[in-house]
Amino acid sequence: MIEFERTKELARKRKMSLLEVNDKAKLGKRSIYNWKNRKPGIMALSAVAKVLHTSTDYLSGITDDPAQHMQDAINLEDDLSFLYRGYPVPKKYIDAIRFLMDHDIKSNN
After folding, report:
1. Between 4 and which of 23, 35, 39, 43 could a Cys-Cys bridge form, CB atoms 3.0 to 4.6 Å apart?
2. Which residue intervals of 1-109 are DSSP H helices?
3. Whole-model pTM?
4. Residue 76 contacts by C-beta under 8 Å, 6 or more apart in sequence?
C-alpha cells in the first residue's frame, strides 16, 4: 500500500527506522508494517505524518508534495528532530539557534 511505501521512503530520508517512527508516533507494536496489507486509520496516519513532518495527504497518495504546508510554532526547548528542506538539522545548529535567541531575548529586556 502507498502509505507504507511513502512512510518507509520518508523515514529513510530522515535517517529513521520504521520501528523508530512507529514508537515516536506511539502506535501499537509494529503497526506500520501492517500497512503493507491494509490501510491505516486516520489517527495512526496523522501521528506518523507528524513524526515525519509531512501531511496525511502525501502519505496516502493524494498529493506528491511531501512538504508540510501548515505554519506550526515550534518549541526549541523540546527534544525533537527538526528538518530543513527534508534533511535533519544537526543538534549543534539547534544549539546555535538557542544561543542566538537567548542572547537576543536578554538584550531586548
Report:
1. 35
2. 2-13, 18-24, 31-34, 42-51, 56-59, 91-107
3. 0.63
4. 94, 97, 98, 101
